[in-house]
Amino acid sequence: MAIKTITELDIAGKRVFIRVDFNVPLSATGSVTDDTRIRESLPTIRLAMEKGARVVLASHLGRPKGKPDKKYSLEPVAARLAELLETEVALTDEPVGDGARKVVNDLRSGAVALLQNLRFTEAEEANDETFARALASYTDVYVNDAFGTAHRAHASTAGMAKFVSEKGMGLLMEREVKFLGQLLGEVERPFIAIIGGAKVSDKIGVLENLLARVDQLLVGGAMANTFLKAKGGKLGRSLVEDDKLALARSFLKKAEAANIDVLLPRDVVAAAGTKSETGRVVQAMAVPDDQAALDIGPETARGFGDAIARAKTIFWNGPMGVFESDPFAAGTLAVAKAVADAKGALTVVGGGDSVAAVHKSGVADKITHISTGGGASLEFLEGKRLPGLAAIES
Asked: Which of 34, 86, 143, 386 has the largest CB neighbor count within 10 A?
């Protein structure tokens, strides 16, 4: 993959359009509650500012359904960014139009403008050519630093790049490609993948691609229920994809044929529902009829922890249970701690809840790389060509 980085592009004094991922959570009063994604973009933005570029930033926020919606305005994001950069950030009233063009044209060297929410028009997600050309007209150099949206072929992530001759990736995107790319190459072994989350259907592609690369697969979360039922388990009221049982059986046969060990839960924490205040530990293959498996049990957590401790390369995506509810968070937190404690291992974590678990456990600084893109990291590891990367290949 031949892609220039921002350090290789001639950006001094030029208009530089940087696609960032500022899709951050906001409070009911409209303030940024977690600025991690904004902070992740700062090295790229600061580099452009230091080189005297006229910086044009663009992002989406939430799902405003293709029309302006004050609830999804980037105004609080611009305010937080200005605080972090310690400089003024000009926010346009619209993603494109006469007002946006004037703000961009008035930028001086080293100054920063942020276009209003790109999804305030349906043209962004539709990858509309007219909209893509309008965005491209605001820049001399295009830089994509939004790995979290690299798997989407939208106007700002793919469409506009064909209308800009100078293009490349930002420092955050470069880091993502470096570490995720390592997992697809030669790695130190044992190499294990820990996959959780709700649905087999969402992750079967990455499971099958990893099967040819890993030494061991650890499967938790609700998706493990489908595999357990495929093996004859009784799962009570647990979330199970009954229409994917044949797919799960087929995958387990492939793993067996490839001599790849797939570790499934041996025990689970079960309860009547996700709002239950406590759960009880039961055998994973024998969940009572009136109960649902909502977390991996302590025996499984220990077994997973032992496997993780032996590994030299680790990829983790997806929680081990209903992580957002304290009674069912222990398994996910135990995995987070085990990954952080894996001595001398290359550790890569991708996916919202697993990233949240790493931060909640206070071990984020012990992880080699925390990916900013859940869906994008999975598609990358499936071996798919991401539109956001394909668009900036030179």
From this structure: 143
DSSP structure class, residue 373: -
Q: Which one of the listed residues 14, 37, 119, 175 is annotated catalytic?
A: 37
Where does residue 298 rank: exposed (0-12), middle (13-18), buried (19+ CB within 10 A)? middle
Residue in 352, 360, 366, 384 annotated catalytic = 352
The structure tokens listed for 190 are 């044992």
CATH code of 6-172, in short, is 3.40.50.1260
What is this structure's pTM? Answer: 0.89
Mean pLDDT of the region 153-164: 97
When the candidates are 3.40.50.2000, 3.40.50.1260, 3.60.40.10, 3.40.50.150, the CATH number that belongs to 179-381 is: 3.40.50.1260
DSSP string, 121-185: STTTTTT-HHHHHHHHTT-SEEEE--GGGTTS--TTTTGGGGG-SEEEE-HHHHHHHHHHHHHTS
Looking at residue 394, its pLDDT comes to 82
Query: Tokens 């309860």 belong to which residue?
Result: 271
Q: Does 225 have pLDDT greater than 80?
A: yes
Domain boundaries, the chain: 6-172, 179-381
Residue pair 60/85 in contact (Cβ under 8 Å)? The answer is: no
Q: In the annotation, is 199 catalytic?
A: yes
The span from the CA of 313 to the CA of 342, in Å, is 9
User: Is 179-381 in the same CATH topology as 6-172?
Assistant: yes
Amino acid, res. 369 = H
- DSSP state for residue 321 in the 8-state scheme: S
Residues 177-198, mean pLDDT to the nearest whole number: 94
CA distances from 390 to 161, 380, 384 (A): 10, 12, 10
Q: Is the CA virtual torsion 155, 158, 159, 162 positive or negative?
A: positive
What's residue 1's pLDDT? 63
The DSSP string of 207-219 is HHHHHTT-SEEEE
Q: Which residue from 139, 144, 196 is spatially nearest to 316, judged by alpha carbons?
A: 196
Residue 357: what pLDDT?
84
Segment 38-89, tens digit of pLDDT: 999 999 999 999 999 999 999 999 999 999 999 999 999 999 999 999 999 9
Per the annotation, the verdict on 37 as an active-site residue is yes
> Mean pLDDT score of the chain, rounded to an integer?
95
- 358 falls in which pLDDT band (50, 70, 90)? confident
